[in-house]
Amino acid sequence: MYAYVQPDGSWWINNTGFLAGRRGVIAIDACSTERRTRAYREAIARVTDRPITTLVNTHHHGDHTFGNYLFPEATIVAHERTRERVLAEGIPDYRAIVWSPEVEWGELEAVAPFLTYTDGVTLHSDELRCEVRHVGVPAHTTNDSYVWIPERQVLFSGDLLFNGGTPFVLMGSVDGALEALDRLEELGARTIVPGHGDVCGPEVIERVRGYLRFVRETAERGRAAGLTPLEAARETDLGEWGELLDSERVVGNLHRAYAELDGLPRGGDIDLVAAIFDMITFNGGQPLSCLA
Predict the structure, then answer these.
(1) Which of 13, 100, 139, 208 sits between 20 and 30 A of 163, alpha carbons compared?
(2) What is the domain count for the chain?
(3) Strand locations in 174-217 (E)
(4) Is the CB of residue 260 less than 8 Å from the CB of residue 175?
């Protein structure tokens, strides 16, 4: 069982992992670019000559799915809404607008999962049980899953957890993400491979919980004062949370928190373009940094 960690875990630089069994490999997530996904495959090949039989997508975001097309031999497994979102979004054009410096994405092709589940599915790497479960609520997105290996107390959390980076719930739910953390905590993981950042222990759960509570409280104060999410972010001292990578995400998170305070159901549609451009404004009008 291996974690494939990509420093520094900022925008589009995600973690993956794999289980190398006697008959084949179960891979957990792809990468954002052709180069990074090919490097991931090369790392797997240095460990085992067995075929990659299965690829699990923890959610639909491109840093976890753009490289799907480079696993033609694998059964690609994910939640049914992950498939829906990959098919709906394809390879979005905004990649060239929002990010700087220019990223060498490669010749990307949108390939959706083709074995889907509603609640979860259990995979087996030889005798090792791998429980792939939808977290049950909108959180980072509407379609987040995690991979839990109970015998080893190892959790691949996808982007339900960030270690050293700012958590991001623009496309999910603040309250749902807090509920998801409770569910992850109940697993009793000893080792966690977060979606971004270094491998860590269960202490990361409380760290993410603290940030999300900060977002919710900031939204409550800002909304009561008649401030927009961008204004609330500008007038708030981020304190310890300002030390996290990609701190401009606070603006997107506040957009989601405001929407929920206004009664929007968890995971409901909001103006993503407005939120992203508010993040750019918060970032001094500069495109968001992407080193992928």
Answers:
(1) 100
(2) 1
(3) 191-196
(4) yes
Dihedral sign of CA atoms 54, 58, 59, 64 in order: negative
Per-residue HEC secondary structure of 177-188 comes to HHHHHHHHHHHC
Q: 276 in a domain, yes or no?
A: no
Sheet (strand 25-28) strand order = 2-4, 16-20, 25-28, 52-56, 75-79, 115-117
Q: Provide the residue range defining the domain that includes 208.
A: 2-214
**The pairing of beta strand 288-289 with beta strand 99-100:** parallel
Q: In whole angstroms, what is the distance from residue 90 CA to residue 81 CA?
A: 14
CA dist 146 and 57 (Å) reads: 9
Q: What is the phi-psi region of residue 136: left when phi exceeds 0, alpha when psi lies from -120 to 50, beta otherwise?
A: left
- CATH at residue 142: 3.60.15.10
Residues 6+ apart with CB under 8 A from 130: 19, 26, 122, 123, 124, 147, 148, 149
Q: Which residues contact 51 (CB under 8 A, 6 or more apart)?
A: 24, 25, 73
- The 3-state DSSP class for residue 245 equals strand
User: Does residue 253 form part of some domain?
Assistant: no
Q: Give the DSSP H/E element, type plus range, for residue 158.
A: strand 154-162
Per-residue pLDDT of the chain (292 residues; tens, 9 = 90+): 999 999 999 999 999 999 999 999 999 999 999 999 999 999 999 999 999 999 999 999 999 999 999 999 999 999 999 999 999 999 987 666 688 888 999 999 999 999 999 999 999 999 999 999 999 999 999 999 999 999 999 999 999 999 999 999 999 999 999 999 999 999 999 999 999 999 999 999 999 999 999 999 999 999 999 999 999 999 999 999 999 999 999 999 999 999 999 999 999 999 999 999 999 999 999 999 999 9
pTM of this structure: 0.97
Whether 265 is in a domain gets the answer no
